[in-house]
Write a structure and sequence with these properties.
By secondary structure, the chain is an alpha/beta fold. It is built from 21 helices and 21 strands. The protein starts with 5 loop residues before the first helix and ends with a strand.
Length: 584
Amino acid sequence: MEPLHPLYHHYLDVLDVAFQPIVDIHSGTLFGVEALLRGTDTLGFESIESFFDRLYEENILYSFDLLLREKVIDKFCTIEGYESLKLFYNLDNRVLEMTDFSKGNTFRLLKRHNLDPKAIVFELSEHNEILNIDHFTKLMHHYGDEGFCIAIDDFGIGQSGYKLLYHCTPNIIKIDRFFLTDIDKDPKKKLLARNMVQLSTLLGCRVIAEGVETERELLVCREIGCHMVQGYFVQRPTLDCTLVVNKYLILSDNFKEEKRSISNQKIVLKRLEPLKAIMVGDSMEVLLDLLNEKGTYLVPVLDTAMHPVGIIHEHQLKSIACSPYGRSLTQNRSSNLSALENYIEPIPVVDLTMPLETMIELFSLSQNAPGVLIVESSRYIGYLSAREMIEVVHERNLIRARDENPLTRLPGNFRINEYIANVIESGSDTVLAYFDFDHFKPYNDYYGFRSGDRVILLFAELMHKVLCSDYFKGHIGGDDFFVGAILDEIHTFETICGEIETLIAAFSDEVRAFYEPSDRERGCIVGEDRDGNVREFKLLGVSSVVIRMGSGSSITSSEHLQRMFAMEKKNAKKSPNHMSIIGN
């Protein structure tokens, strides 16, 4: 490799490296840092891209990049606790086209600092067009075979991302910022991002939500199953390595407690199987010894950070275990059979705090997976088999069934509170509506509780008939009902309020059939009040308090919301259309 012109050594002296943290999306624990180049503007370049374009044109991209890697690794090793972190390094895919490209150079740099190759994550971006996908995937295999991790950066914006997933599954996917900007307000982006996360997870990739700038965006990314997060919301890139800490408080006090998640966690933990695991660098002999233990048929494989990289099933090793020469082959370092990676199968990896629905969804989409591996703060804690997953679902459904109102079969207070907590946590643009009958007690006293039950069933049926099937409908108890509806392009705030007004009118009209003809004609019933005085009571109706929730909402708890409903109920009953609307 020819020495670089002194000018480029001057460039290297001027340039500096900033680091941006990448953290576990559930716990805030530091997973790694991305190295970002700074100072190209000082050298007179319009952008970092134009700087690398010049290096490419001069045919020194690889030579300069090796010196830059050395500079980055040297600074990375000044971060406290760097030994357990991953260094994300942006690799210009054109570096692989250089004629002086050769093997083993990065490995020698790491050896000098006693770093494992798995500590380095080469980020390959779709920004520079990949003209030869076969050549590119071959080189991806080259870096993977040398023990480095591979990440696809800016996933989703180029033309080659899904081809790369097909030809050479990377270790990590970084979803492009475009899909995450305002994801809490854009259902289409949320759907696309969720599909990317599901596909990547099923292929055994970890997913980073990149460029997250708000708490609401982070919460949606966590909901759809992202494993890690990076962005201004966590920390901006910093030149000062002392500002990189090992844990970040990524959620405010309003969102730290998640009662619904805690109840689901208890169900999962109760059925978790703590399978013994091996490290990815262990020998095949260690694996075979473990599989020989009674009852062991499945072994999780972990990296140095205790995060699962996959599983090894005993059926994968029958050709070795059944062969008289199998054990000697595993001890032969020149044999491919000594590499654990040859037998690792992908399996969904889910966080303990992940919504149960997301866990089940990822498992159900994975046709060949025998179960899921559970992590907490990115560290392996156990295995949940397909059978235990079914039991988890069954137990969860039993809890929900107990909560179901026996008369209307609508979800009760447990699931209503669960829904409200999710809305407040995610900050999604949602309409919450509370319904309370007008003059129900006099009717119930006069006509009897059986007639009262028939009226309650009428309203429940009208809810299903008038309101969209996508809405969450709940029965608080007695004559109190609840509805939740997520706003989108079709279900606007005005549309939902219109449906609620239609429901109120429909109930007032149809409930008349539950009165005697004389009472209908009179427009009231005559009976005694609590003091024994004879008086007239108006016919049944229903009033509603409608509250719009979202990122700017001042309501931060279920108790606060309930107080708002109680305060506004009187205003709704006095209103001509029997509605009190807040937040329009």
